[in-house]
Design goal:
Blueprint lengths: L4 E8 L7 H17 L4 E3 L17 H17 L6 E10 L2 E10 L2 E7 L23 E5 L2 E5 L3 E5 L6 E6 L1 H4 L4 H7 L4 E6 L7 H15 L3 E6 L16 E4 L2 E5 L6 E8 H10 L12 E5 L22 H26 L4 E4 L4 H16 L7 E5 L7 H14 L2 E4 L3 H11 L8 H22 L2 E4 L3 H6 L12 E2 L6 H14 L3 H12 L18 H5 L2 H13 L4 H11 L6 H17 L1 H4 L28 H9 L2
Parallel strand pairs: 1-2, 2-3, 8-15, 9-10, 10-11, 16-17, 16-19, 17-18, 19-20
Antiparallel strand pairs: 1-14, 3-4, 4-5, 6-7, 8-9, 11-12, 12-13
Helix pairs in contact: 1-2, 7-8, 7-13, 8-9, 8-13, 9-14, 10-11, 13-14, 16-17, 16-18, 17-18, 18-20
Length: about 625
């Protein structure tokens, strides 16, 4: 369970109605297989020891007694098998029958948790047999032991502060006041649901939605296990639809009509981080709850879970297109409001022929269309200097023309040379002063031109550059409104591609394709044989790695060792481990050192769950020390 990962399993065995011996054998086989694969929390279906579809056989003492006997045998089977197991059975207490889940671990039945909401509508007639469970725990006798019986029972992993398990049974999830709500508010980070949910058309989608929304609303992991093959088909069919979710995301989901074991890796540390972050997640009084402690061995979880290489970019084409369309709308609406508020009817955009300035110009054009302003009011300024290549210069000019903007070409070489002379900088010395002088000259021109034209300077810098501080302070770092401030570099590329794919103007489509093929570069160093020599990713590292680091560090709260662990898994075969570690060091060092640039960012719209605005998501002191993060990074070497 290193880094908070916990392997869990939903086990839907084949069963026989009322054959408790066969069912116990199948349950034990499932336990054996799941434990051998490293699962630590196992969930079986509702009433799996008897079968859910026993009907009036639930009233037979023989069936109830056999279920108790087989439960004790299941418990004995778990001895020296390192897992917490939930098994469903009917249980009689004080002359009444309850639909219960038994929590079993290391040879013992820890408790019995009864179903809170008993359905009696549609195809369900459970009230014929079962009573709603009591909330507060009371003692019952099972075998020779007395164990607690009640809905409000939590199970806490000893020495694992983030592992607290609460239990629901089937209909409990469908109820408006599901027990999982109070379980989570009382501290449960993992909810399990033993279910027997029959199949009807469209029910699987509704079931999935319930599990996703419950895990999201409660900021919890959720294991949903449903009955499958072997239940009576007299009137119903059960598909064994198992789902494992975490905080609104489906980690794993099985195919219906297949008895199987579904595995998932729940990230308990991330759930704890999300709850720390959400001040509206308020814990309640725990006095009505009984918390039992169980022990599991602390072992490294062999991860099966995948982490997308580009967490900001949906893998599905349709979802990606929808995301791009929505982001472009957010950017344009943000700029629209700012232009309306200031009364500006003109905009100034510095265009370099690169990705970021291209996206900014596309967004500005879309905004002017919304405002019904002529695109000729957009002043696209290209400012060639020592590092400008013909390719990027030509693309900037073509792009402005294709979008109908006014193109202004201002060569800044002479102005920069005068500045070099004033400060005593040698032109042949290609240091940071050489580079930043060009960036600041360009910004000065854009600002002064905007003053002259009563226009607004539209910023082009993106989220990834802000994270790394890859911007010239008071140069390209500054604008009057930064439309790309919330867009990571990996997503900028897809936004430009999406725009190009949907546009009908062939000239615009072609230039966008060439912009996409151009290496990312600030073009502040002289080219060689007309080719770009200063490639950003050679200097600060691949943006796909940095965006990956940024997402999991800032959005998920992962520590460096955990980021490195999942990065090795996600980029296996693409980057050597040493390369990933090299750029991870660069990322942490730059992220902390460059905060002062983010502390005075221009306004710009937030578009995703990761943002760096000092007025919004990131309230970080500019002089925060990186030491404890770097110590862990260095320990990985």
């Amino acid at each position: 369970m290193e880094h908070g990962f916990l392997k869990v399993a939903a086990v839907t065995p084949k069963l026989k109605v009322a054959d408790t011996i066969f069912n116990r054998e199948q349950i034990c086989n499932g336990i054996e297989e799941a434990v051998s694969k490293g699962a630590k929390v196992l969930v079986f279906p509702e009433l799996c020891l008897s079968g859910y579809t026993c009907g009036d056989l639930f009233l037979q003492k023989r069936l109830l007694d056999c279920c108790r006997q087989e439960l004790i045998r299941v418990a004995e089977f778990t001895r020296n098998r390192d897992a917490l197991v939930f098994v469903g059975l009917p249980f009689e207490r004080d002359g009444k029958l309850y639909n219960t889940a038994a929590a079993v671990q290391n040879g013992n039945v820890l408790c019995l948790i009864p179903k809170a909401f008993i359905p009696a509508y549609g195809e369900f007639y459970e009230t014929r047999y079962f009573c709603p469970g009591n909330r507060q725990a009371v003692p019952v006798v099972l075998g020779e032991r007395e164990i607690p019986f009640g809905t409000n029972i939590l199970l806490r992993g000893a020495g694992m502060e983030n592992l607290v398990v609460g239990c629901e049974i089937c209909e409990d999830l469908w109820a408006p006041d599901e027990p999982g709500i109070s379980h989570a508010l009382a501290g449960a980070t993992l909810l399990v649901n033993l279910s027997a949910s029959n199949e009807t058309i469209g029910k699987d989608a509704y079931r999935e939605m319930l599990v996703k929304s419950s895990s999201a609303r409660l900021t919890a992991g959720y294991i949903y296990c449903s009955s499958g093959e072997g239940e009576s088909t007299q009137d119903l069919v059960f598909g064994g639809h198992d789902i494992i979710a975490e905080n609104g995301c489906i980690l794993a989901q099985c195919k219906k009509f297949e008895s199987q074991i579904l595995y998932g890796d729940i990230d308990l540390d991330r759930l704890a981080m999300e709850r720390r972050r959400m001040n509206t997640f308020v814990s309640t009084d725990h006095s009505g709850y009984l918390t039992l402690t169980f022990s599991l061995k602390k072992e490294e979880t062999q991860l099966e879970r995948t982490f997308p290489c580009m967490p900001f970019v949906p893998a599905d084409q349709r979802e990606r297109d929808e995301r791009c369309n929505e982001i472009l709308a957010i950017q344009s609406m943000g700029l629209k409001k700012r232009l309306e508020h200031t009364g500006c009817e003109k905009a100034v955009v510095g265009v370099s022929g690169g990705l970021d300035s291209t996206l900014a110009l596309l967004v500005t054009a879309g905004t002017f269309d919304m405002l019904k302003l002529p695109r000729r009011n957009i002043i696209a300024v290209t400012m060639p200097c020592f590092g400008t290549t013909d390719r990027t210069y030509d693309n900037a000019c073509i792009l402005a023309g294709a979008l109908g903007a006014e193109l202004r070409q201002i060569d800044i070489k002479e102005a920069v040379r005068i500045h070099f002379r004033d400060i005593g900088q040698e032109e042949g010395k290609h240091d940071v002063t050489y580079e930043n002088a060009q960036a600041r000259e360009r910004t000065q021109i854009l600002m002064d031109l905007a003053n002259r034209e009563n226009a607004m300077v539209i910023g082009t810098g993106d989220l990834s550059e802000l994270a790394l501080g890859w911007a010239t302070y008071n140069g390209d770092h500054m604008s009057m409104y930064g439309v790309n401030a919330g867009i990571p570099k990996t997503l900028v590329r897809h936004l430009v591609k999406y725009y190009g794919d949907k546009c009908e103007k062939e000239e615009l489509k072609n230039v966008l394709r060439d912009v996409l093929d151009t290496p990312v570069s600030p073009e502040l160093l002289p080219p060689e044989q007309g080719k770009i020599t200063q490639k950003t990713e050679d200097l600060v590292g691949p943006y796909e790695l940095h965006d990956f680091f940024l997402y999991y560090m800032l959005r998920c709260g992962f520590e460096p060792a955990k980021v490195y662990r999942i990065a090795k898994r996600s980029f296996k075969g693409q980057y050597e481990d040493a390369v990933i570690l090299k750029w991870l060091r660069v990322f942490y060092r730059r992220f902390f050192a460059q905060q002062y640039k983010r502390s005075c960012l221009p306004d710009g719209p937030k578009v995703g769950s990761v943002a760096l605005s000092p007025r919004g998501d990131l309230r970080m002191p500019s002089d925060a020390c990186v030491r404890i993060w770097m110590e862990q990074v260095e320990a990985l070497i």
